[in-house]
Amino acid sequence: MNTTLMKWILFIFLLIQPAFADEELKAPDFFTLTDPKPTPTAEFYNEKEEKINVSHFKNKIILLNIWAKTCSRCMVEMPMLDRLQATMGSMKFEVVAVSSSLETIPAIRKLYHQKGIKNLKIYSDSQAKFATAADVRGLPTTLLINEDGMEIGRIRGIMEWESPALKAQIRSLIKQSKEKKKLAEQQSSQKSEEV
Question: Cα dist. 31→157, 159, 172 in Å?
């Protein structure tokens, strides 16, 4: 069997596996932050079917959720993610929900309409290039990515997207990002004054 076919078979197998083997596990309500690490440069498609990658969201904190229509837990999460985007989405934060199933952009648009998803933009990774590069091992998987495009957290499985703890964590990351930018501007200003 060729390597591409093997990768697809493995990825499809991972799609149907529940992210939690033990149904009794409680969904986390915030990310455990890790040391920043590079996110994949693999591309996926936006609603206009243009290729983009994580660098498209530079200078924003992004919560990148990888999901599929065939994943029941993903379908439970989608309305929560939509509400999170509605309440917290801004110039500094965005929920990016990337479909990693074979659905076309029009099919995803139809699904969003059926589910009442109004605040999330449509993104597709129908060839699973991004999901594979990101080492996704089950759905849903969500990456927390800082303003520099670095992964700083990952959740495999369903999460409590509307928890006060998560919203406080996102607000804190946005505040840190603003402070970091302000400090960089001050340092740049001081250097130009010295010259």
Answer: 12, 9, 12
- The β-bridge relationship of strands 141-145 and 61-67 is antiparallel
Q: In whole angstroms, what is the distance from residue 141 CA to residue 135 CA?
A: 10
For the cut 50, the answer to whether the pLDDT of residue 46 exceeds it is yes
> What residues pair up with 156 in beta bridges, in sequence order?
141
Nearest by Cα to 19 from 113, 141, 150: 141
pTM: 0.83
Would you state the structure tokens that stand for residue 191, as one six-digit string?
Answer: 């250097």
10-24: average pLDDT: 47
Residue tagged 């990888």 (tokens): 66
3-class secondary structure per residue, the chain: CCHHHHHHHHHHHHHHCECCCCCCCCCCCCCCCCCCEECCCCCEEECCCCEECHHHHCCCEEEEEEECCCCHHHHHHHHHHHHHHHHHCCCCEEEEEEECCCCCHHHHHHHHHHHCCCCCCCEECCCCHHHHHCCCCCECEEEEECCCCEEEEEEECCCCCCCHHHHHHHHHHHHHHHHHHHHHHHHHHHHHHHC
